[in-house]
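Thought: the user wants the 3D structure for the chain below. I'll pass the sequence to the structure tool as-is, report back what it returns, then summarize two notable features.
Action: structure_tool
Action Input:
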Amino acid sequence: MMKKNVQSITKKVAALIVAGALAVGLTACGSAGAGGSDGQSGQAGGEELTMTNVSYDPTRELYAAYNEAFAKHYEAETGKKVTVVQSHGGSGGQARSVVEGADADVVTLALEHDITLIEEAGLIKEGWLSEFPLDSSPYTSTIVFLVRKGNEKGLKDWDDLVNDGVAIITPDPKSSGGAMWNFLAAWHFADLKFGGDEAQIKDFMAKLYGNVTVMDSGARGSTTTFVENGQGDVLLAWENEAINTLKEYPDEYEIVTPSISILAQPSVAIVDENADKNGTQELAKAYLDYLYSDEAQKIIGENGYRPSNQEILKNFSDKFDLNVNLCTINDFGGWNAAYEKFFTDGAIFDEIYSK
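Observation:
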């Protein structure tokens, strides 16, 4: 009964997030006005530009800081002022909102597959993955455990999470990209633990998800459930979410890095159909290009994400565990294969969660 209630609540919340993101996108479209063919949008003369970035839950602080820095940079370079409208929610829900009409000029989502869905809808041109460096991934992250100070239940690795009486908070893979990374990291641990025996791996995963007490639609919602509402013993969290929680509540929480985690590679892309319509192609490209600048890479590190610039990443070695053992999406055959095997309707996640 608990799982059915959680699934029902999750679907309702996901639907509200999609609707909210769609509304933000449409509002942004109205604020941009008529765009010209010269890559500019906004008021007459093209001196005041507006664009929309549809992103996922935990990037709110990152893009608040980055948008300010980019606007200063762009005005210094071009003499034009820029306003960036932000939309945030579960990554999968955000992708669906763009497919359904949210007027994103760019998307900065939790994983490649979510952007592929927008490409398949005809809104993004083929080849987007190679349009920007490092598979269009200007920063990376990983998955850690956030526990309350003292770690009363001694949770150190994935197999501790299947113990009786452990209450886990994690978002829903049906709407959250971070939740998919959580699932895959746990699966890879179990794969190694049981030597590839899929029956044992599924049993392990069923026990783990059987301990999930609240499954929100996005990562930020799960952080709120764990931190502000005080539910659960452990939060499966984006590293940046855990770091930001420690910054805000330095004496109340601890980060536990499991023996194995996953290299999470959030992706970025121009939504070509919208950018062409809004006249924001040049602006959108400049916006995503600048994420790779030294200034932006430092902002990325300061906000708990791992800079893709390895030299700048080293400057944050006191913040990140750079020695953690990370699997990658390639260990699962790439995102298309992983999504088909684990997350489509009736696939392994549905199978193990219904047990």
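Final Answer: Structure generated. The chain has two domains: 2-140+265-314, 143-263+325-353. The first strand starts at residue 48 and ends at 55.
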